[in-house]
Design brief:
With about 200 residues, the chain is mainly α. It contains eight helices and no strands. It folds into two domains: about 5-95, RNA polymerase sigma factor, region 2, helix turn helix motif (Rna Polymerase Sigma Factor, Chain: A, Orthogonal Bundle), CATH 1.10.1740; about 100-195, PhyR, sigma-like (SL) domain (Butyryl-CoA Dehydrogenase, subunit A, domain 3), CATH 1.20.140.160. Helix content is about 75%, strand content about 0%.
């Protein structure tokens, strides 16, 4: 496509779209190969600032575009503008998701902070830490195994997001969503058991 003029490129896009609507996976691959690089480099990476986040948003962009392809109506311009709008929305969604996850992480961090402090010689301090760990473990046991595993890996073992995602056999973006839901479930269970609210 590099040597084609604007009219040829638009005609090629229309042919691709028609073939994709008929279920042609190869045509979708061509469209992806043509538009994924500029969407990643020009739209997503500058907004998200993280290669992993941009890659997740790119995958979500094309998944969403494929689902909404029936709604797309060419208006004489390239489909790139339509894809770019979807990509910007995905970047915004991910940015908001990161902010929510950050708040939830801070809340859980403040709760378990005493567990990460160096061991104190005073018996009372050791007892308090044991009680807190027992309380945290008791609430974790009330969660689904998947939620419990996400919190264990990220919060208690302090592993990087990428490694947590790999161990749970999912993408980083999906892991972030899973962790946020797990932390919300933990908060609800904590309040149910202990009747006191940690800082939001």
């Amino acid at each position: 496509m590099a040597n084609d003029g604007p009219d040829e490129k638009l005609a090629w896009e229309l042919r691709c779209l028609e073939q994709i609507r008929r279920g042609d996976r190869a045509a979708f691959g061509e469209l992806y190969a043509a538009f994924a690089p500029p969407l990643y480099a020009d739209v997503l990476l500058p907004r998200l600032g993280s290669a992993a986040s941009a890659e997740d948003a790119l995958a979500e962009t094309f998944r969403s575009a494929l689902e909404k392809l029936g709604e797309y109506r060419p208006q004489g311009g390239s489909i790139f503008g339509w894809l770019a709008r979807i990509a910007m929305n995905k970047a915004t969604d991910q940015y908001r998701q990161r902010a929510r996850t950050g708040r939830a992480l801070a809340s859980f961090e403040s709760l378990i902070a005493p567990l990460r402090e160096p061991a104190e010689p005073q018996i009372e301090r050791r007892i308090d830490r044991r009680r807190l760990r027992t309380a945290v473990d008791g609430v974790l046991d009330r969660l689904s195994p998947r939620y419990r595993r996400a919190i264990q890996l990220r919060m208690l073992e302090d592993l990087p997001r990428a490694e947590c995602a790999a161990r749970m056999e999912t993408s980083i973006g999906t892991f972030d969503v899973l962790l946020l839901r797990a932390l919300r479930a933990f908060r609800e269970a904590w309040l149910e058991v202990h009747g006191m609210r940690e800082d939001p």
